[in-house]
Automatic annotation (TrEMBL):
This is Molybdate transport system ATP-binding protein. The keyword Cell membrane applies. Residues 14-255 form the ABC transporter domain. Residues 304-368 form the Mop domain. It comes from the Bacteria. GO terms for biological process: molybdate ion transport. It holds the Pfam family TOBE. It comes from Glycomyces harbinensis. Keywords: ATP-binding, Cell membrane, Ion transport, Iron, Iron transport, Membrane, Molybdenum, Nucleotide-binding, Transport.
Length: 369
């Protein structure tokens, strides 16, 4: 029998990241396939507890896989060896060509900015003077050339984030991992730093994986989104595809849509509750129907006139949402509706009140489930 090929010598593997992350942790299982091309940024987006951080820790080498594999530019970094004659392989974090920007940055408090950035190159054998020169160059690139002698305690949150980014990039990583990199910043600093981070990701030659629960960060920074819920990818695609056709309630809430699943027959989508929606598109079979809260009109009495979807609903909540009020409705369809403050005052909206809701068929987008 031929000797199996060593796991780290696969020359035919594709460039970039090719991973199947399987991690068992108590009752939770992460089972996620992930492919990221060089120069591409992929955002793992999902609620707390979905498995995003577990995925990032596995990629970084801080969490060993139960099964699956992690290959970066053709080299296997983690392969448990649970299948046939496959040899197990695990590469320690310090020997992976991976840069990580943690949520809390984790800069060394006793080192100044230059020495923080120089740490990675020094660990990889670069001489002290060369590493410090390299670090100074990276601080210049992130706009902190004059802050090299400052320690982390002397930096603002935005400055510390940029030092952490420079430290991660100074090692010329084939894979850049960013764990909620903007979460610790205030709103104004977050806006400015997001623009700066986007600029650096745009010219980064390696693959990049961004972990976030913030849809704005994902939409602004990533080329592609992978939505993770309960340890699995539930939807994947570019921002336009994901936001136009959400496939779970979590995604629908993120993009501000009412979403329902049912069975389509022509322009009617019948839901499991027994309610039905008339849409502007004909379909057959399992389907989603989605519409914006702004498409919902509220009335005191049952409306007439042009063909609409109408139903009696009970107001369960009213709260401010930007310049409008977001009205939560219970009834045959649990729905969110956006109305102006003037309209809310005219209708006298308050919890427990009965109203009629209406949505035009042309406002409802239907697509295959």
């Amino acid at each position: 029998m031929n000797e199996p090929e060593p796991a780290g010598d696969r020359s035919t593997a594709t460039e970039g990241l090719d991973a199947h992350l399987v991690v068992d942790r108590g009752d939770f299982r992460l089972d996620l396939r992930l492919h990221v091309a060089p120069g591409e940024t992929v955002a793992l987006l999902g609620p707390n507890g979905a498995g995003k951080t577990t995925a990032l820790r596995a990629l970084a080498g801080l969490q060993i896989l139960t099964d699956g594999h992690i290959a970066l530019n053709g080299e296997n970094l983690d392969q448990p060896g649970t299948r046939g004659a496959q040899r197990p392989r695990w590469v320690p974090p310090e020997h992976r060509r991976i840069g990580v920007v943690f949520q809390d940055y984790l800069l060394f408090p006793h080192l100044n900015a230059i020495d923080n950035v120089a740490f990675g190159p020094r660990r990889r054998g670069t001489g002290r003077a060369e590493a410090r020169a390299l670090a100074a160059g990276w601080l210049d690139r992130v706009g902190l050339g004059e802050f090299g002698k400052r320690r982390p305690g002397q930096l603002s949150g935005g400055q510390a984030q940029r030092v952490a980014l420079a430290r991660a990039l100074a090692t010329d990583p084939a894979l850049l991992l960013l764990d909620e990199p903007l979460a610790a910043l205030d709103a104004r600093t977050r806006l400015d730093t997001r623009v700066e981070l986007h600029r650096h990701l745009a010219v980064h030659a390696g693959a990049a994986v961004l972990v976030t629960h913030d849809p704005v960060d994902a939409l602004m920074l990533a080329d592609r989104l992978v939505v993770v819920e309960e340890g699995r990818a539930v939807q994947e695609g570019d921002a336009e595809a994901v936001t136009a056709r959400p496939r779970t309630d979590y995604i629908a809430r993120l993009v501000g849509l009412n979403l329902y699943r049912g069975t389509a027959s022509g322009t009617t989508v019948r839901l499991a509750s027994g309610a039905a929606l008339t849409t502007g598109e004909a379909l057959e079979g399992e389907a989603f129907a989605a519409f914006s809260p702004s498409a919902v009109a509220l009335f005191r009495e049952e409306p007439d006139g042009s063909p609409r979807n109408t139903w009696r609903a009970t107001v369960s909540g009213v709260h401010r949402h930007g310049d409008h009020l977001r009205v939560q409705l219970d009834g045959p369809l649990r729905t969110a509706a956006d109305v102006t403050p003037a309209a809310a005052a005219h209708l006298g909206l308050e919890p427990g009140q009965t109203v009629w809701a209406a949505v035009k068929a042309t406002e409802i987008r239907a697509y295959p489930a």
